[in-house]
Design a protein that fits this description.
single chain; 3-stranded antiparallel sheet; 16 helices; 13 strands
Length: 475
């Protein structure tokens, strides 16, 4: 009997080993009707995620991860696995633009979409995403910024800078996170119960930790806490929205837009989609804009000639006002020519994270390679440092944009906010915040803490913060 038992165990163990080996082989050699780009799928499930997410100094244009693979494969397009997903990574600008225009969904990895729930914008079709994008642009597009937001942004940032001046210093990134949070909470929810808003703030603050990671929802893990926070926030938001709607209270600006849309015949928007849209919009605004803001301040601080030119431009704007204490107007914002040149160059210099996320609906043929349907596509804008497109691309030089179109945010040579019909709807929102902060900073003599360090990861990382020291108001 014992021999039979040992034999049975041996057979079961052998079958498990064979099955495991077959699974590993299938993982390492994914099927494709055509020819896949060169690459490696890394370890099963983990793939090459940890190496891809390793931070590196902002002075390094190409990440060590990308540099190693481009050298190994001799190609600007390669395959890999990240966050449990099959991924095609491209730094080829023509390929990136081709995929951006193709019939495909805007999509993040499934690990991210699980955290944000079934109704999040990452899982929507291209048509639904375009619909949501047009809806959101009514709030953060040029007209919305001009009529709804510029005054509040100006007041909040002015207070932050002046409070920082009184204290001698402040963290630019943290101040921007706080400002964006206050602004969006007010404009989305309007004036509402402070206790409810405080609870929502706690839920949103949970996402201050890195949420772009593996999303195995196991109790005790970061992902478990994020999913719990998102569900609680959705419940709070839904209850607040329905209560305000039932009581005929004044809704926040964004809710006015959403409910106006929901009451239309044949609308694709319901209360659950609206709640998730608000939640994702808030998280993404706090994740992206503050990081770019910090990087802009770091680049300006590192280039005294840029700082001096900014001060001249903003001093002239103040001097031309009848009342020197009035806030920034839309006309003044549009007239900040050099400021827009600085912002455009900063975005070129800092945008090396994937800005084109797509899942092709069908196989796409690009040259000799096939990009399979269902695979996630990451397009990384290395074209920003192409010597054929830019003179001395490794140098931060806002004057390179002099006499050029400083308002354009999408082209084959420039795509900090993505490309195609699904480029980031919040691009003007971010640019306005950066410009107004630079305007108020220019009133003071300031310098950046020497410990400030900017690292590139999937987003920009500030290990020691981004602290500005302010000595006195510039005369």
């Amino acid at each position: 009997m014992s021999e039979i038992y040992v034999l049975a165990l041996s057979v079961v163990f052998s079958l498990i080993v064979v099955k495991l080996c077959h699974w590993v082989y299938q993982w390492s050699n994914p099927k494709c009707k055509g020819k896949l780009p060169p690459g490696s799928m890394g370890f099963p499930i983990i793939g090459e995620t940890f190496e891809f997410m390793t931070p590196f100094d902002i002075s390094l244009v190409v990440s060590p991860y990308l540099k190693k693979r481009i050298s190994r494969y001799g190609s600007k397009v390669f395959r890999t696995s990240l966050f449990g997903a099959k991924v095609i990574v491209s730094i080829d600008p023509d390929v990136n633009m081709e995929i951006a225009k193709a019939s495909s969904q805007l999509r993040a990895t499934e690990s991210v979409t699980r955290i944000f729930g079934e109704n999040n914008p990452f899982l929507q079709s291209k048509e639904i995403h375009k619909y949501v994008r047009n809806l959101t642009s009514r709030f953060v597009g040029p007209e919305g910024l001009k009529t709804r937001l510029i005054h509040d942004i100006d007041n909040l940032l002015r207070n932050d800078v002046e409070n920082g001046a009184r204290n001698g210093s402040f963290d630019v990134r943290e101040a921007t996170i706080k400002m964006v949070g206050e602004l969006i909470a007010k404009k989305i929810m309007g004036e509402t119960e402070s206790e409810a808003v405080k609870e929502l703030g706690l839920c949103w603050s949970a996402f201050r930790t890195s949420w772009f990671q593996f999303s195995y929802n196991i109790p005790g893990t970061t992902v478990y806490r994020l999913v719990k926070a998102r569900r609680k926030a959705a419940k709070l938001l839904k209850a607040l929205i329905l209560k305000k709607k039932a009581s005929k209270e004044g809704l926040g600006d964004f809710l006015d837009i959403i409910f106006d849309e929901m009451e239309k015949d044949g609308t694709a928007l319901d209360i659950d989609k609206a709640v998730n849209l608000i939640f994702v919009f808030f998280i993404l605004s706090q994740e992206t804009t503050p990081g770019v803001q910090g990087a802009v301040v770091k680049l300006v601080a590192d280039h005294p000639s840029v700082m001096e030119e900014l001060q001249r431009e903003h001093e002239a704007i103040v001097q031309n006002r009848a009342d020197k204490d009035t806030g920034v107007t839309w006309e003044e914002y549009k007239s900040m020519t050099f400021t827009h040149m600085v912002i455009k160059e900063s975005l070129r210099f800092t945008s090396t994270q994937p800005t084109v996320h797509r899942i092709p609906d069908q196989d796409v043929q690009i040259g000799d390679y096939t990009l399979p349907a269902g695979w996630l596509f990451f397009g990384i804008p290395q074209v920003h440092f192409d010597e054929e497109k830019y003179d001395d691309p490794l140098t931060f030089n806002p004057w390179r944009w002099q006499g050029k179109d400083i308002n354009s945010t999408v082209s084959r040579e420039y795509m900090p906010f993505g490309a195609g019909g699904t480029h980031c709807v919040g691009s003007e929102f971010a640019k306005l915040i950066i410009a107004i902060l630079l305007h108020h900073l220019s009133r003071f003599r300031w310098s950046l803490d020497p410990k400030t360090e900017v690292l590139r990861r999937y987003t920009l990382v500030f290990p020691a913060g981004c602290v500005v020291h302010i000595s006195k108001e510039s005369e």
